Amino acid sequence: MSESSHHEVAAYALGVLDDGDVEAFERHLDACERCRQELKTMSELPGLLDGVKSSSERAN
Amino acid sequence: MLRQVRQTTGNDLQWAEDVVQETLLRAWRNAAKLTWERSLLWAWLLTVSRRIVIDGRRRRGVRPREVEPPEADSIAVPDDADKTLAAIVVADALRGLSADHREVIEQTYLRDRTVNEAAVILGIPPGTVKSRLYYALRSLRGVLKERGVAS
Ligand SMILES: [Zn+2]
Fold first, then answer.
1. Which residues form the Putative zinc-finger domain (chain A) (predicted)?
2. Cα(A6)–Cα(B43) distance, rounded to whole angstroms?
């Protein structure tokens, strides 16, 4: 498995992976312990980025 | 979950409730995932709810303004000091990333765009966007962890 095949976990964690790629990545996730671990560690980032997003919306 | 989703919807409670409903519905349709360990299941539910919010924003034509991440001193006064402090640290950490890394986070998550849309805008292949996002999130997380904002 190539290194880049694990990179989609970041886009997936952010919810910005295109619909057509989501299903394939979830199949990968079912079989890939590394991506499961990374999904867990990345899953708090969107919430933290929301703070930046909503404060910039408010500031306008 | 409602609290998390509410943040993503910009505090629109009605919308957040709809998103949680839809997320739970999808969870039932993916019953196989319900055997996953708890923390992974939680991470998965959050990705599902985020996609619903992003789709919803598109349908409504509501997009966040096209702005640079705020300067620390322009951040609005908070209801919640901890949250604002975290937002300042996160904004600062974003500015500390390499330009390529900051750009892919801005052009995707912060503007409600998918990888493919951002790839067109940036004029780079979707695979490059995915890889940059991967390294960008890893380094962002590293910095935030160091500063005590991420676990
Ligand atoms: Zn993987």
1. 9-36
2. 17
Where in chain A are the domains? Answer: 3-53
The count of other CB atoms within 10 Å of the CB of residue B119 is: 21
Rounded to whole angstroms, how far apart are CA atoms B52 and B126? Answer: 21
Architecture per CATH, domain A3-53, reads as Orthogonal Bundle (1.10)
Tell the residue number behind the tokens 């998103």, with chain if given.
B19
Nearest CB to A55; choose among B49, B50, B70: B70
Q: Collect all residues with Cβ–Cβ distance below 8 Å to B59 and sequence separation of at least 6.
A: none
Q: What is the pLDDT of residues B15-30, one digit of tens each?
A: 888 888 888 888 877 7
Enclosing H/E stretch for A48 = helix A45-58
B46 — contact with chain A (CB < 8 Å)?
A: yes
